[in-house]
Design goal:
With 591 residues, the protein is mainly beta. The protein has seven helices and 33 strands. Helix 1 runs antiparallel to helix 7. The chain starts with a helix and ends in a 5-residue tail after the last helix.
């Protein structure tokens, strides 16, 4: 067996050399085995979704224009898709990993994602996109570094740390899904995790003995880049580090105007980079806190994640009360004003040498306007559902992009309304019809009592405005047309609206969804269809060789054949995967 293991390692290195050396842009390769493991992040044994046996999963580390190749082996007992939040999948919605573009990966199958991180930098994360699975894990960070020829707008940090925060239930995703199917709310989470671990025992009443907590070890005087992602179910979290300033530098692929915060609200699905200098004395460790926001905080004290910042020369443990979060329980403007203060650094270079602000979005004429209104859940056909503009989205049996490619009729409707419906809510596969190279304005109106956040695949959009009340045409007078942050996930406060602008230059089928998992699961999503009438490979890549088929196209799907299912089209990669899959067939990489 030892000789087989050596042969495996040797052949993998040969394959990697062949693959890496022959591609136009470098490849980075990851093998994901997605499975259940038992963990006890809040002291209660439960089933979580792990990648390669780890919870959370590994951080993907790439550089602008790299080809990222991820071979996913599904060892769950249900279908799986992985999506890459904020990765724009330029010209290739085939790789987006949501049901509008991809057939799911069945249990015991493997499928290879192959995409280029074209003209992107920044901090992102990935997660399983189906059926509430993110509530059980399966997530991890995704870093895109600048190319060496492009300078970053701050001194190179002494370290780079990914921090995944999120509310957490001790019930797994299948139990949470059943609650929603039965018409129930999920209720208050059981806690907040930091990098898959529960809270440090800062309070013996609220935190039981034996909880494993996250510790970040740092060196005094050094500056670290902390990439913080809210990967939770539905709770906005306020992030802070005791006695340390958070210098905001980047959000979801855009460099920001650098500003210090003592704490920042991070909404579900959002990502931020902070530069944090270890400039305090080392008399003791310091608390890292992620606490629930926009809730009755006296009842939600247990929904607090606590980790430890440990200086290498620390003289003692953290003790005493946690650093206070915002004292604004009765001031609903504080958080919104903080959000408005986050601005685009127009003079910094992003993935390209030219300054970010050279794209003057404020001077472009809008071609389409859509108002997407969220309301509290409603009953449709006897089931509790969520809606956008009066439509609860029904996932198609044949993915929309595949239906278009093979001209499948009646797979979806291209009739999503520009303004909210006024009649009875509908359950439909209704899609927004957009104009390629158009410039769309989307107003997200939240008429619910809960905080929501929304994500758009395929693009970075410009957040140009937000306010309380009902959006009107006159609201455009408040828009920021110069340095609104470009990102892929925006919060919408209860009883408020947020406005975004999108330059529709990326052909494909692109998901617009609530990031709150309960709202998403119950139907709060749609898709934008962006089609170039002069179809060509310059604006969209052809269907990948290893595409999976389902629904009306099910007869096209061959039985799982590892060598063909893993076939890809990147130069030099076919040989790599052919050899790798031969190894994988005879010598399993994972016991």
């Amino acid at each position: 067996m030892a000789s087989l293991s050596f042969l495996t390692v040797l052949l993998i290195h040969i394959c990697l050399f062949v693959s890496f050396s022959s591609a136009e842009d470098p490849n980075v390769f990851y093998q994901f085995e997605v499975s259940y493991v038992t963990a006890s992040p809040l002291g209660v044994p439960q089933q979580v979704i792990a990648i390669n046996g780890k919870f959370p999963g590994p951080t993907i580390n790439a550089t602008t224009n790299n080809n990222v190749i991820v071979n996913v082996r599904n060892k769950l007992d249900e279908n799986l898709l992985m999506t890459w939040a904020g990765i724009q999948q330029r010209r290739s919605s085939w790789q987006d990993g949501v049901l509008g573009t991809n057939c799911p990966i069945p249990p015991k199958w493997n499928w290879t994602y192959n995409f280029q991180v074209k003209d992107q930098i920044g901090s992102f994360f990935y997660f399983p996109s189906l059926n509430m699975q993110r509530a059980s894990g399966g997530f991890g960070g995704f870093i895109i570094n600048n190319r060496a020829v492009i300078s970053i707008p701050f001194a190179t940090p002494d370290g780079d740390i990914t921090i995944l925060i999120g509310d957490w239930y001790t019930k797994n995703h299948t139990a949470l899904r059943k609650m929603l199917d039965d018409g129930k709310d999920l209720g208050m989470p059981d806690g907040v995790l930091i990098n898959g671990k529960g809270p440090y025992q800062y309070n013996t009443t609220l935190v039981p003995d034996g909880i494993d907590y996250e510790t970040l070890e740092v060196h005094p005087g050094k500056t670290y880049r902390l990439r913080v992602h809210n990967v939770g179910v539905s709770t906005t979290l306020n992030f802070r580090i005791q006695n340390h300033n958070l210098l905001l530098a980047e959000s979801e692929g855009s460099y920001t105007v650098q500003q210090n915060y003592t704490s920042l609200d991070i909404h579900v699905g959002q990502s931020y980079s902070f530069l944090v200098t270890m400039d305090q004395n080392a008399s003791s460790d310091y608390y890292i806190v992620a606490s629930a926001r926009f809730v009755n905080e006296s009842n939600w004290k247990r929904v607090t994640g606590v980790g430890i910042l440990h200086y290498t020369n620390s003289k003692g443990k953290a003790a005493g009360p946690l650093p206070a979060g915002p004292q604004d329980e009765f001031d609903k403007t504080y958080s919104m004003n903080q959000a408005r203060s986050i601005r685009w650094n127009v003079s910094a270079s992003g993935a390209r040498p030219n300054p970010q602000g050279s794209f003057r979005y404020g001077s472009i004429n809008v071609t389409d306007v859509y108002v997407l209104k969220n309301k509290p859940p409603v009953m449709i056909n006897g089931k509790r559902r969520t809606t956008l503009s009066g439509i609860s989205f029904k996932n198609p049996s044949t993915p929309i992009r595949l239906a278009d490619w093979f001209k499948v009729k009646n797979a979806y409707k291209l009739d999503f309304p520009a303004r909210p419906l006024t009649g009875t809510p509908k359950l439909e596969t209704s899609v927004i019809n957009t104009t390629f190279r158009g410039f769309i304005e989307i107003i997200l109106q939240n008429n619910d009592t809960k905080m929501q956040s929304y994500h758009v695949d395929g693009y970075a959009f410009f957040v140009v405005g937000m306010d309380y009340g009902e959006w009107t045409e006159n609201s455009r007078g408040t828009y920021n047309k110069w340095d609104g942050i470009a990102r892929s996930t925006v919060q919408v406060y209860p009883g408020a609206w947020s406005a975004i602008l999108i330059s529709l230059d990326n052909v494909g089928i692109w998901n617009i969804r609530a990031e709150n998992l309960d709202s998403w699961y119950l139907g709060q999503e749609t898709y934008m269809r962006v089609v170039n009438p002069e179809a060509n490979n310059k604006t969209e890549l052809p269907i990948p060789d290893n595409a999976l088929y389902c629904g009306a196209l099910n007869k096209l799907q061959k039985p799982q054949d590892i060598s063909s299912a893993a076939s890809i089209t990147t130069n030099g990669s076919k040989l790599f995967f052919a050899l790798l899959m031969i190894i994988y067939t005879f010598v399993p990489l994972f016991p």
